[in-house]
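CORE FACILITY INTAKE
Project code: CF-77B
Contact: R.S. (postdoc)
Sample description: multi-component assembly, two entities in total
Requested service: structural model of the whole complex
Turnaround: standard
Below are the sequence entries exactly as provided by the requester. Do not edit them.
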Amino acid sequence: MPSEFELIARYFTRGTTHTTLGVGDDGALIAPAPGQELVISTDMLVEGTHFLPDTDAEDLGWKTLAVNVSDMAAMGARPRWATLAAVLPAPTPEWIEAFARGFFACAEEFGIDLIGGDTTRGPRAFCVTILGEVAAGKALRRSGAGLGDDIWVSGQPGRAALGLAHLQGRTVLAEPRRAECVAALQRPQPRVALGLALQGLATAAIDVSDGLLADLGHILEASRVSASVQVAVPSAPTLERDAWLSGGDDYELVFTAPPSCRSAIDALAGRLQLALTRIGTIAAGVAGAIDLRDAKGNSLAIRQRGYDHFPSPDA
Amino acid sequence: MPSEFELIARYFTRGTTHTTLGVGDDGALIAPAPGQELVISTDMLVEGTHFLPDTDAEDLGWKTLAVNVSDMAAMGARPRWATLAAVLPAPTPEWIEAFARGFFACAEEFGIDLIGGDTTRGPRAFCVTILGEVAAGKALRRSGAGLGDDIWVSGQPGRAALGLAHLQGRTVLAEPRRAECVAALQRPQPRVALGLALQGLATAAIDVSDGLLADLGHILEASRVSASVQVAVPSAPTLERDAWLSGGDDYELVFTAPPSCRSAIDALAGRLQLALTRIGTIAAGVAGAIDLRDAKGNSLAIRQRGYDHFPSPDA
């Protein structure tokens, strides 16, 4: 019977399409294309904090890579390579095989070579580092939002938070909403095509991992501006409203662009078959501040901008 | 009082010297020099498996980066950038500050920019991905060992394993041996200068992380050759002998080179003030096999090639 080590080697060693030297040496070798900058991001997923202990292995494999792909999307980069370090308690062969199936489904969907790995026994956690390419000087940063820019969001943020609330018994969703929200949580679809298409249109971008208002706040702080946001939500707090405003884990993109780009962005929405919604305007004022109003223009209190994976003990 | 999150941001956000965009966006941006390939490696350090729970925070910071730097050394690459993802239970400000001091001491020693990070609360673990540069086509791989090549090892492997045995009460070392072995365990010195100098001399290389025989075995398997190794060790098993042959965590380099390079390698040892010892010869025969003999030529049984962090439950 093969050891877990051998099983992991078997399931995670696959051919590469654009890598000089892949898994199996002290390091991988890649040769970025001339004129491209490399974009690098790393994320750790820890059981209990980032995923539920009973998450389906194949979904978990997908999501482990997908949340990193989303960082490439937010930079306007094309994801190209990834490494995976895993801490695992005592996986069954079936679990390893299913996790690998989900991970490589995402890798193939987005054209990513797995080029390095590491496995240790311990409490379940995964660390992916992803590398992408972007034409030199063309990356979308958080710091480029300008006064008067529109604020846009893709898709329907909040679905993942609702899916989580359903799975945790804090709400009951009816079909087809249930399936849609649970899928948003477990099989997030990183917006790579959108990020690439936003090069030359967007002035700043971020992906919604912590919550719409929290992540917009990161753009505002980096750009040293404030925002006026107007949304069609109920004025009284509801789970649905809070999920929309501050639910994390959706991996939609929030971005800013000058009003002159509106028709191009609307055309992009049609081409990508993806909702792109204008939710506000960049303003002067205190860096990071958000003036939130409902559809009638009434001021809304912000209860929580997002979810902090590492909250202060004295907060 | 600042939150842990703020403390981590404060201690781990430092200036960079060769990075287009560092920590603080969805990804970092780097521009590798023309004509260079990138070498990438990732390693996870988990408490209890890779370090003792009471390890000094500053030492742990150093080692977390140093073991990754060692992978660059083994590839003959110059380390340039790193990302750090940390899972931490509830660190004190003093702990964070000391860990950062050790981590950046290593980063500065080897000219590395920290370009990305991630923090989660949970059982202590660290994941570093390191990126280095090497002239295209010049990387040292495991697969290049040729028949008749000498086998060399740097420094004194086994000291880290002895240091661990001392700390665990399995042996008692006298000074100055104690200090030297504990330092080898807690402040390993990656052999970057040696790796760079071996370009054009060595045909294959690896760092000793799992144990001398285990890591030599990886070269033999990748190169599809066997080895004849002759060492000046007692014929009866002792802790010292086993540490030398199969103790991990030393981060010395094992490499192969044609006999025509002997004088150049001896000169290198002098220049680097580092012992470089010839321990055997590459031979034909079963790929991966090691014929181990003592100084008199008597055959020695191999009890264990190295330490497997993830042993098979049925092994």
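Facility notes:
- The longest strand of chain A covers residues 36-46.
- Residues 309-315 of chain A have pLDDT under 50 and may be disordered.
Invoice: internal transfer
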